[in-house]
Design a protein that fits this description.
The complex is a heterotrimer of chains A (about 600), B (about 325) and C (about 140). With about 600 residues, chain A is an alpha/beta fold. Chain A is about 30% helix and about 20% strand. In chain A, α3 crosses α5, α4 crosses α5 and α5 packs across α14. The mean pLDDT of chain A is about 90. Chain B folds into three domains: about 130 residues, NADH:ubiquinone oxidoreductase-like, 20kDa subunit (Rossmann fold, 3-Layer(aba) Sandwich), CATH 3.40.50.700; about 40 residues, no CATH class; about 120 residues, no CATH class. Chain B starts with 5 loop residues before the first strand and ends in a 22-residue tail after the last helix. With about 140 residues, chain C is an alpha/beta fold. Chain C is about 35% helix and about 15% strand. Chain C has a four-stranded parallel β-sheet with strand order 2-1-3-4, with helices on both faces. Chain C is globular, with a radius of gyration of 15 Å. The C terminus of chain C is likely disordered. Classes of the chains: A alpha/beta (about 600), B alpha/beta (about 325), C alpha/beta (about 140). Chains A and C meet through α17 and α18 of A and β2, α2 and α3 of C.
Chain lengths: ~600, ~325, ~140
């Protein structure tokens, strides 16, 4: 079994010219997707022997992303940009991560603590969600003493909204508990800042030199029509999606809680569908009403992922598109039905401004109404701490995440901008870097904006189709176990092998880390030998060998070292020996072999 | 009275075309003739070997030797001229790399003799007379040079100072070479007196090459509709230009004939045939894996084509340690 | 009596053959094996020179078709070898002396077996005869 090295020459380098494969550009934390894909493709075929390799890959990912085990169930942003989509299907990176996670999660309890020397200042992180945990993790590694203040009894924040049929509880709890243990992070549970005497200033007095505020968005949005808050949201049987999902996550709801009930869900985002499919699994007959239209490619299209909609439809959930809610009808204080005019337009040039057709109205009845139209931060708390501007918006520098009103406070995650889990994690990492610079008196802005350029797809004669995702049949899904089948070792190796390694060698170095090569060779062109025949350009699969114009209407060969994989095919194909591989030990080994004849 | 430098021009196993090339210098040849004293030129002048043998070593300033070494007389004369000359210029494809006659190396001597003296349809040789090195006729002993098993390039037999490629070398290169010798402005020993870049650098058709060149089926020149601008490779016609040294003045490619490689390899590539094989293999394209062999089979007689002029200099020959191989 | 055992030079692609062999034991045993990062790096000059320098056979171990880490290095070398075989025939050298195998073997166990198999197959051809001939002086 190979052993993958992570230090010294095997360390991936900052791309000088900022080229990366498109998946890594898209990933908010620029994970080393290409390197780990290659490593997965080179695991042994035997599952027992492969464990060691899976553990190594997991360790490598964990160094920079201790929540990667969760990503394998809920993310997949990278797949949206994968070059392979144009040729047969994006690489199923999320399932590859899940494959690693499926083993790694169960060994996480045994992973050793980092035992970092913490000789730098104290930093407080308010909010134990993904943003806060990433910030705490990163600062701990840098030697800061970090304390996380978590208002509830458990870490994880909005991650608990994700139903267990998408993210098993064991994966989540294992990731959260072990993160703070391994990085040596102190957590104060059930401690809400702003309650009574506990304010940010008090924390400052207690010795915290910087604070990262990432309390997320605990407040569900209420339903409005026009500019008015809709009446009836306090009827019996009406609840908010967020509260509902948090309740379910505590395990307090019986599995047939909604049997015999008709549940109506209002909302068109992924969370609304999490609510609908959860309610369905609790026995309800479910329908969804959303403002947006069915056509996902239009501006007014429903924002939920295609997979969620497909899953919901398969599970027998009825979806009413393009419906607003004008009135909530109740009788004797109990919810009866909603009145839904047709929404003809959701957005106009100014923004969110729905328009309705009063002559086309339908009624959807039910006995439970779950409103899931978004969530917002706790503005009053932010106001009290003086972190809002005169317009009531968060006063924060979008690049450095530093508060504009109090320089020792940094803000990130959903509280700053609602987004995906990994975007919150990115904020956490960014804030950690900002806090370090702030503490050490360094420039806050220098080198922070990295505009990465995505590399294109290599040519190939063997593009393959993506493997299908396998879901258990809908009638067998009425429980909270995972319904999506993960990869076997064989499937993971094959899918990882399908990756075309679009990105530059210096951002990968997988081959060096397992000893296939000692260094990355470079290709040099001896221009005095190059006749401009262009054969190298025809054979290069990576767009690296190119012809450039020189004087007198002549062309000569050149190498774009960011595209080059040093595969050597251009060197072999060059009829005049104008191209040479430097740093490749083929000739030395060849001479040795000849001598040994 | 100025002593004119002595020059010898001698043919080994050649066709006479190289002598033609020198004669083709036309008026320029008179300048040459006036500037030097020609001491040996069998095609044009009547000197005897014995007059060369009588000379002192290094008495001849320059020996221009063309043709390959096929028999012992060639070897003998090559060695003789080497002893008597300061500089030896290997002239033409045959001397440099073996030339077209070196294709005979794909057969054994007995194969060749059997065909020429016995099996060829037009041979009438009822007594089976084959040339011998020694034979008795009417009580007299007749000796003939020994026909070697192999065709050799000149530098595999004697030490060579300079090379002039071509089949035959073009007039301008000849004049430059001879002038350089006479004026004493010579490049380092072992240099080939021709531009060092491959043909594509000099060829007008290079700029019409498509970005992605691929050959799905190799065609012969008469099977395509050839114009005078398109690159031959782009039409599927094998042109050895990419692996062949330039300097010939593009006589073939400008008359719709693909380059056949008579100028041999560029400076540091020993075996242009092998390098060209790699290059052309890269360009061949099969649509699916099971068609690869079929596509490769459209290259008819690769050995004959790739080594048309350079067989004697190819990798697959092992030579005496005494040989002077120019490649590093 | 010495039994003739053909000398084989073997080019072995690292991405397909023996990458799980971390102790590099297999490499140590085979001195005439040249590990390469892709079979596409093997040039015609490597193969022809090997034959000239005394190898009785040349074996190239490349990845299965469609599995090359660099897209098509194995395919490129495959085409070269088909052409080389034709050239060898003209030179009077048996084309069986050059061989390419398209497969993967992560543990590298099959490498010595492939070499042995080639040895067995070409031993009946005898030592290579590449037209050694001394000048008659």
């Amino acid at each position: 079994m190979w052993k993958t090295e992570c230090g010294g020459r095997t360390r991936v380098e900052q791309a000088v010219k900022q080229f990366l494969p498109p998946c890594q550009v898209q990933c908010p934390i620029n994970e080393d997707i290409q390197r780990t894909n290659v490593l997965i493709s080179m695991l042994p075929e035997d599952p027992n022997t492969a464990q060691e390799g899976v553990q190594q890959i997991g360790d490598y990912l964990y160094e920079r992303n201790p929540l990667f085990t969760v990503c394998g169930y809920v993310c997949g942003l990278c797949e949206l940009e994968c070059n392979y989509s144009s040729q047969g299907g994006a690489i199923r990176r999320r399932l590859l991560k899940r494959f690693i996670s499926d083993t790694y999660t169960y060994n996480l309890d045994e992973k050793e603590e980092f035992n970092i020397v913490k000789n730098k200042e104290n930093v407080a992180v308010i909010g134990g969600g993904p943003a806060g945990l990433m910030c705490a993790f990163d600062l701990s590694k840098r030697g800061y003493r970090v304390t996380v203040y978590e208002a509830t009894a458990r870490l994880g924040g909005a991650l608990w909204l994700i139903p267990q049929y998408r993210l098993p509880e064991k994966v989540l709890t294992s990731a959260l508990e072990n993160l703070v243990r391994i990085a040596g992070i102190d957590v104060k549970y059930n401690t809400r800042i702003g309650d009574g005497k506990l304010t940010l200033d008090k924390l400052k007095n207690e010795g915290y030199k910087a604070i990262f505020m990432c309390r997320g968005t605990p407040t569900p949005r209420v339903l409005t029509f026009g500019k008015e808050q809709l009446e009836g949201q306090d009827l019996s049987g009406v609840m908010y999606g967020h509260d509902f999902l948090y309740e379910v996550s505590h395990g307090n709801i019986k599995s047939d809680y909604f049997r015999g009930h008709k549940v109506v869900v209002i909302g068109g985002g992924n969370v609304a569908f999490d609510v609908a499919r959860t309610a369905r699994r609790l026995g309800a007959e479910v329908s969804v009403a959303c403002l947006e239209s069915e056509n996902k490619s239009s501006r007014d299209g429903i924002p939920a992922d295609h997979e969620e909609i497909k899953g919901a439809w398969e599970e027998g959930i009825q979806i009413h598109y393009s419906r607003g809610v004008k009135k909530i009808h109740g009788e004797s204080g109990i919810f009866q039905k909603i009145e839904c005019p047709l929404c003809t337009r959701v957005f106009d040039d100014a923004g969110f401004n729905p328009k309705f057709d009063p002559d086309d109205t339908m009624f959807i009845d039910g006995d439970v109404l779950i409103i899931t139209v978004g969530q917002g931060p706790d503005k009053s708390a932010l106001q009290k701490e003086g972190l809002l501007d005169e317009k009531g918006r968060l006063a924060v520098d979008p690049l450095t995440l530093q508060s504009k009103t109090k320089e020792w406070i940094f803000l990130g995650g959903d509280v700053r901008k609602i987004g995906f889990m990994v975007e919150a994690m990115r904020d956490g990492l960014y804030a950690a870097e900002s806090i370090e610079r702030y503490m050490r008196g360094l420039d806050m802005h220098e080198g922070r904006t990295r505009a990465y350029e995505a590399q294109e797809i290599p040519r190939s004669r063997h593009y393959k189709h993506e493997p299908d995702i396998v879901w258990i049949p809908p009638e067998k899904r009425m429980h909270f176990q995972l319904f999506e089948r993960g990869f076997t070792l064989k499937e993971a190796r094959e899918e990882a092998k399908r990756c075309l390694t679009c990105g530059p060698c210096i951002s990968c170095k997988a081959c060096i880390s397992i000893g296939l090569q000692d260094e990355l060779p470079t290709v040099t062109v001896h221009e005095e030998r190059c006749s401009g025949c262009g054969i190298c350009t025809s054979i290069c699969y990576y767009g690296s060998a190119q012809m450039k114009h020189v004087a007198d209407n002549k062309v000569k060969s050149m190498t774009d070292m960011f595209q080059c994989k040093a595969c050597g095919m251009c060197v072999v194909a060059c009829p005049t020996l104008a191209r040479e591989l430097i740093g490749c030990n083929l000739e030395a080994k060849y001479s040795g072999a000849i001598a040994a004849l | 009275m100025v002593v004119k430098p002595k020059v010898a021009i001698y043919w080994l196993g050649g066709c006479g075309g190289c002598d033609e090339a020198i004669v083709d210098l036309n008026e320029a040849i008179l300048h040459v003739a006036n500037a030097v004293e020609i001491v040996l030129w069998p095609v044009a002048m009547d000197f005897k070997y014995s007059s060369i043998e009588k000379m002192n070593d290094n008495e001849i300033t320059l020996s221009i030797i063309h043709g390959n070494v096929r028999n012992s007389e060639h070897a003998e004369m090559a060695n003789l001229l080497r002893r008597k000359s300061q500089l030896v210029l290997s002239f033409g494809a045959c001397a440099n790399y073996g030339g077209t006659p070196a294709l005979a190396n794909f057969r054994s001597k007995s194969d060749i003799f059997n065909w020429v003296y016995r099996d060829s349809p037009t041979v009438v040789n009822p007594k089976g007379v084959f040339p011998q090195t020694i034979s008795e006729t009417n009580g007299k002993t007749l000796t003939l040079p020994e026909f070697y098993e192999h065709v050799y390039a000149l530098n595999q037999v004697i030490d060579v100072d300079y090379y002039l490629p071509g089949c035959p070398p073009p007039p301008d290169l000849i004049v430059n070479a001879v002038s350089a010798v006479l004026s004493g402005k010579l490049p380092p020993k072992g240099t080939t007196l021709s531009p060092h870049m491959a043909m594509c650098d000099a060829c007008e058709r290079n700029k019409t090459k498509p970005f992605k060149l691929e050959i799905k089926e190799v065609k012969r020149i008469h099977e395509v509709d050839m114009d005078n601008e398109t690159c031959f490779l782009a039409k599927g016609v094998i042109c050895m230009g990419p692996a062949t040294r330039s300097g010939c003045g593009n006589t073939c490619v400008s008359t719709n004939t693909p380059c056949r490689g008579c100028f041999g390899p560029v400076s540091h590539a020993c075996d242009s045939g092998a390098k060209f094989l790699s290059a052309i293999a890269s360009l061949l394209q099969a649509d699916s894996d099971d068609q690869v062999e079929q596509v490769v089979d459209t290259v008819v007689d690769p050995a004959g084509y790739f080594y048309r002029f350079t067989q004697a200099a190819s990798i697959l020959h092992k030579f005496d340690e005494n040989t002077n191989r120019r490649c590093p | 009596m010495d039994e003739y055992s053909p000398k084989i030079i073997c080019f072995k692609c690292n991405f397909g053959w023996g990458y799980l062999d971390d102790k590099k034991e297999i490499n140590a045993v085979m001195k005439s094996t040249v590990p390469v990062t892709c079979s596409g790096k093997v040039d015609s000059t490597h193969i022809l020179t090997a034959l000239k320098e005394g190898a009785d056979g040349v074996l190239v171990l490349g990845c299965s078709q469609g599995e090359c880490h660099f897209q098509d290095g194995n395919y490129q070398t495959g085409k070269k070898i088909l052409l080389i075989k034709k050239v060898l025939t003209s030179f009077g050298i048996e084309p069986e002396r050059v061989r390419m195998v398209f497969s993967v073997d992560p543990d590298g166990i099959k490498v010595p077996l492939e070499i042995e198999e080639m040895r067995n197959e070409i031993s009946s051809l005898g030592p290579i005869n590449i037209g050694k001939c001394a000048m008659a002086s």
